[in-house]
């Protein structure tokens, strides 16, 4: 619940500022918060985190923090996708057996 509240506050701050630097920071922390909440609460909002990170990288293509976080989010998506695929294949094998 605290993570969700924090993310809502960051969205409000993002919407209320005109500073590009502040917007970049808010986007980064929104993406980080989504990633953190995925690790702890399984909100399954990888796509939202990637959108925030892509917005930063559109403005600052050389932003290493955003690139690294995007790589981590992508790794988690792939890992969970493979785990989900393995469970589905296993369940299918049981049904056929």
Automatic annotation (TrEMBL):
Q: What InterPro entries is this protein classified in?
A: Fis1, Fis1_TPR_C, TPR-like_helical_dom_sf
GO CC term (a single one) = peroxisomal membrane
Family annotation (SUPFAM superfamilies): TPR-like
A biological process from GO: peroxisome fission
Q: Which Pfam families does the record cross-reference, listed alphabetically?
A: Fis1_TPR_C
What is the protein name stated in its UniProt record? Mitochondrial fission 1 protein
């Amino acid at each position: 619940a605290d993570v969700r509240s924090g993310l809502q506050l960051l969205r409000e701050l993002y919407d209320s500022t005109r500073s590009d630097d502040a917007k970049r920071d808010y986007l980064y922390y929104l993406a980080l918060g989504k990633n953190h909440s995925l690790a702890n609460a399984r909100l399954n909002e990888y796509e939202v985190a990637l959108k925030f990170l892509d917005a930063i990288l559109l403005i600052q293509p050389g932003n290493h923090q955003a690139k690294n976080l995007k790589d981590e989010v992508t790794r988690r998506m792939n890992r969970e996708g493979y785990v989900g695929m393995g469970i589905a294949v296993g369940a299918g094998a049981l049904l056929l057996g």
